């Protein structure tokens, strides 16, 4: 099952902060992200191959950093030249027999502590594993292709929005009819392209009033394609598409962002906290898309942990083990939308 737990920092490793510290955090965050958007290298603007570790994880627990912290560490790690997506606290480094490299500078991530009478914003510092010495950590093997594709099929088949496959070349979400239209699977250059198209439309359609009732969704459809809300909605959709693809294990293929870059930068300059809001909402969108397929994803995860028998092609023709070939996966009867025409 795709992992969707939040790697929440614990009390005791945190430092209480006031309004000023979160503001500095967001300003640093948005400064990095705007630079990357303008260069076309923001996390959701870059392709990630299936099985390629991209979204940041805690190196010890294996849990993903989600929402704003996930995008923040991904952006900062890229900006600082780290190739590894794993991060650890200083305490975790010590407990696992490692040391921080001399002069190592960590990244502060932000979280809300709800333990007291009033919520308090706190920060904790984490370090990329490339900043450590002598730390021995296991890396999770990538999902097998069959597992990732079947997981993606399950998510699409469980879509809350009807998806129709069309012989044409355009994909779109029809708000008035609340349905998604995408090209037939056979028209795509790869399975990952097909899955990303479906996830992108599904992410946008999740904003409908009968589902998440998202403000940026409503504003985008009332303002039109050139409106600022359209850019903010698209930012959520792209990050959600990237997150969903990574969670099910398929490759991520970004959409053409040229039409949105200026809108994204304008929104982030107007309010540095917008990137954190967009990332947090994108995480909720991704979870929303995965939730209906939760049981199927759990079954797949259990199956993936079992030793696999040889496939039909691997068995001798007269072998008693030989089993009928696995039937092809049916095309999804339900799917989901994206924001603009095209793939």
Q: Could you characterize the architecture of this molecule?
A:
This protein starts with 14 loop residues before the first strand and ends in an 8-residue tail after the last strand. It has helices at residues 20-39, 67-79, 90-95, 145-157, 191-205, 215-223, 228-248, 261-270, 274-290, 294-305; strands spanning 15-16, 57-58, 86-88, 99-100, 107-113, 120-128, 132-133, 161-166, 172-174, 179-183, 334-335. By secondary structure, the protein is an alpha+beta fold. The longest helix is centred in the last third of the chain and has 21 residues, at 228-248.
Radius of gyration: 21 Å
Output the number of helix runs: 10
Structural class: alpha+beta
The secondary-structure element order is EHEHEHEEEEHEEEHHHHHHE
What does the average pLDDT come to?
Answer: 83
Query: Which range does the strand content fall in?
Result: 5-15%
């Amino acid at each position: 099952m795709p992992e969707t737990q939040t790697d929440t920092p614990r009390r005791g490793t945190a430092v209480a902060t006031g309004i000023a510290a979160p503001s500095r955090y967001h300003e640093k965050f948005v400064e990095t992200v705007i630079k990357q958007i303008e260069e076309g290298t923001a996390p959701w603007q870059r392709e990630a191959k299936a099985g390629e570790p991209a979204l940041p994880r805690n190196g010890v627990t294996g849990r993903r950093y989600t929402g704003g912290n996930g995008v923040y560490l991904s952006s900062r790690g890229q900006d600082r030249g780290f190739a590894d997506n794993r991060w650890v606290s200083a305490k975790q480094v010590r407990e696992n027999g490692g040391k921080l490299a001399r002069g190592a500078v960590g990244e502060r991530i932000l979280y809300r502590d709800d333990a007291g009478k009033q919520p308090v914003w706190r920060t904790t510092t984490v370090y990329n594993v490339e900043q450590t010495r002598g730390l021995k950590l296991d890396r999770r093997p990538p999902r097998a292709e069959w597992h990732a594709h079947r997981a993606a099929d399950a998510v699409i088949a469980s879509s809350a929005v009807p998806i129709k496959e069309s012989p044409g070349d355009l994909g779109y979400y029809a708000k008035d009819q609340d349905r998604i239209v995408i090209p037939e699977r056979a028209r795509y250059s790869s399975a990952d392209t097909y899955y990303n198209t479906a996830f992108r439309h599904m992410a946008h359609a999740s904003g409908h009033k009968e589902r998440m009732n998202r403000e940026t969704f409503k504003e985008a459809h009332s303002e039109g394609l050139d409106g600022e809300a359209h850019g903010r909605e698209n930012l959520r959709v792209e990050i959600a598409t990237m997150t969903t693809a990574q969670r099910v294990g398929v490759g991520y293929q970004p959409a053409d962002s040229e039409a949105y870059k200026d809108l994204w930068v304008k929104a982030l300059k107007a309010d540095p906290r917008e990137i954190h809001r967009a990332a947090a909402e994108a995480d909720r969108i991704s979870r929303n898309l995965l939730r209906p397929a939760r049981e199927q994803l759990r079954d797949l995860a259990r199956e993936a942990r079992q030793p696999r028998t040889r496939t039909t092609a691997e068995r001798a023709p007269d072998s008693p083990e030989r089993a009928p070939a696995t039937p092809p996966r049916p095309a999804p009867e339900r799917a989901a939308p994206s924001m603009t025409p095209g793939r």
